[in-house]
Amino acid sequence: MNPAPARVRLDAVSAADGGELIRCNLASRDHHHPWATPFTDRRGFEAWFARVCDTTQVARIGREVVTGDVVGVITLSGILRGGFQNAYVGYYGMAGSSGRGLMTEAVGTMCRLAFDGLGLHRLEANIQPGNVASIRLARRLGFRLEGYSPRYLQIGGIWQDHERYALLADEAAFGAT
Question: Would strands 122-127 and 86-93 be described as parallel, antiparallel, or unpaired?
């Protein structure tokens, strides 16, 4: 049985993507609230873009293959090598693509890149306990709950509690080894 054709592709982020990502983030503010506060202006994009261009991060834009529309943004950050081979995966979807499985496909593709392309052993996703959609996405990809981190990450100026989920390369259901 052949796998279904990809509905989403991942594109490397470039400086030229700023305007489009700002428009998408502005249009999705209600969708992101209170879970994420992505940039909504040029200054914010430039600061974010500078961070994701360093050697410890990888950022991709998920786009629908057919339309080219932005589905969401996925990052690998804090990439550590040596005996750890770990990164944090972060993601947020756009309002127009919600509920169609497109972000699950996009994040799954990023996980394959992390394991098969970058040779990482472990991915960690830290998610606010009330963010049910994000938790479901992580669980669909095989992430398992490992712990709870009080006041772990500052979002919207408030230190938010998070649940810590992880996926190991040799446990990934999509074929990493």
Answer: parallel
Q: How far apart, in Å, are the Cα atoms of 102 and each of 9, 14, 64, 66, 128?
A: 10, 21, 8, 12, 21
- Domains in the chain, please, with CATH? 8-171 (3.40.630.30)
Rounded CA gap, 143 and 165, in Å? 6
Relative orientation angle of helices 102-112 and 132-140, to the nearest 10 degrees: 50
The pLDDT value recorded for residue 174 is: 62
Q: What are the residues facing 62 on neighbouring strands?
A: 10, 72
Range 107-123 average pLDDT: 97
Residue 98: the pLDDT is 87
Burial 47-83 (b: 16+ CB within 10 A, else e): ebbeebeeeebbbbbbbbeeeeebbbbbbbeebeeee
146-175 pLDDT tens trace: 999 999 999 989 999 999 999 999 998 764
First to last CA, the chain: 22
pLDDT of residue 175: 43
Report yes or no: 78 and 88 within 8 Å, Cβ to Cβ: yes
pLDDT, position 108: 97
Give the amino acid at 42.
R
